[in-house]
Design a protein that fits this description.
Layout lengths: L2 H16 L2 E4 L7 E4 L2 H8 L4 E2 L6 H8 L4 H4 L9 H12 L2 H6 L1 H13 L7 E2 H6 L1 H11 L3 H15 L5 H27 L5 H7 L1 E2 L2 E2 L2 H14 L2 H15 L2 H9 L4 H12 L9 E2 L3 E3 L2 E3 L4 E4 L1 H4 L34 H18 L4 E2 L20 E3 L5
Parallel strand pairs: 2-10
Antiparallel strand pairs: 1-2, 3-7, 4-12, 5-6, 8-9, 11-12
Helix pairs in contact: 5-12, 7-9, 7-18, 10-11, 11-13, 14-16, 14-18, 16-18
Bound molecules: protoporphyrin IX containing FE.
InterPro entries: Cyt_P450, Cyt_P450_B, Cyt_P450_sf
Family: Belongs to the cytochrome P450 family.
Pfam families: p450
Length: about 400
Amino acid sequence: MTTTQQSHDQELAQIRENTPVCPVTPPHGVPTWLVTRYDHARAVLVDPRISKDMHSAMSAYQALFGDSSMALDDNMIFSDGPKHTRLRRLVAKAFTPRRVEALRPRTQQITDQLLDAIGPYAPVNLVEAFTFPLPITVICELLGVPADMRADFQRWSTTVAGTVYDDDSVRLQQAAEEQMHHQLVELVALKRKEPGDDLLTDLIAARDDGDRLSEAELVSMTWLLLFAGHETTARLLGNAIHALLTHPDQLRRLVAEPHLIGTAVEEFIRFDGPAENATFRVATEDIPLADAVIEKGSLVQIVLATANRDPRHFDRPEDLDIGRTDNHHLGMGHGIHYCLGASLARMEAEIAIGTLFRRFPHLTLAGEVPRLGPENPAFRGVSALPVLLHART
Ligand code: HEM
């Protein structure tokens, strides 16, 4: 892990120990409270006084994201019940465990094809060659995004995930969001005209007691699934591979005991998961917590990464232990907004990491590993992963 990342993590760990519910004023200017301990984080994630509804907290939402995201963000992750319940129920009709399980052989095939295409004896950046292409291909195939639209979606979503704090980035983001919105409207129209055996076609048809998704809801739901469905998984894969390469004892253990891949994936999410913070939340009243009072109208930023290393909850929290059991981390959230794609992400990670190290047990790092900086506040993780697949130790 780089020194910048280490000092950032140490700073947050000190906040957790000294001022666990901590007021800060980020560059967007909206008063914000950091929640850094496990028990507090878990409680806040299910506290009905803390809202995720962008419409009821419009000024905070706009300070954070601007105007242009609204059409795309009007979806379940920015809603409270009953709107949230309704949207989540409708998507659950189409995004079933059976559909995810059916993707397993195809995910294995894509994994093998991507690894086959990498020259085994020259250094390669796994972020470009493997950790991003795999989840992008899987989520696009699942949704039914035609191959010729995929590169654009990936480019735009990377831009949207970037910083919101300087004028140039905001302009770029707005342009990307407008183009993305336009393209998604076309995609939904295309699926109406030419239905396929895919999730988007099923979402168009999904009904619940006569209720169905509107055109605008279909567009923002598709955006949420596309975005959440690849950035997070891609970052998890990069961080997990890096964690194994920098903890050779754990890598040897996984190679010797491949059945540990299930607990290993949970541990990767706990140890260095891609979501440093939970998403947008606003206090709807004054909320006493620990020694503080979170003031009505302020943002609540739940620092999942710090909660996941809270020594009050985890034994040896700073150690990577791929056999860890009872690993109730918060890396995929908790409560009604618990990650909708959790089983898909787990399946992809198990196949990707398991296959990579089964085929290339002597994989080694081949250069410096940079990490995302503050310009990328939504995610934590490696931004490049130079490796040699066939190096022998
Ligand atoms: C390792 C990969 C992933 C991680 C670490 C992750 C993490 C999270 C977290 C922390 C939340 C809760 C946010 C909050 O309460 O503020 C969440 C929600 C969500 N995730 Fe994931 N996610 C991953 C993969 C995926 C995938 C593959 C999909 C879709 C195919 C997905 C779709 C969603 C959706 C739609 C929500 C919102 C659910 C709701 O509001 O009810 N995620 N995810």
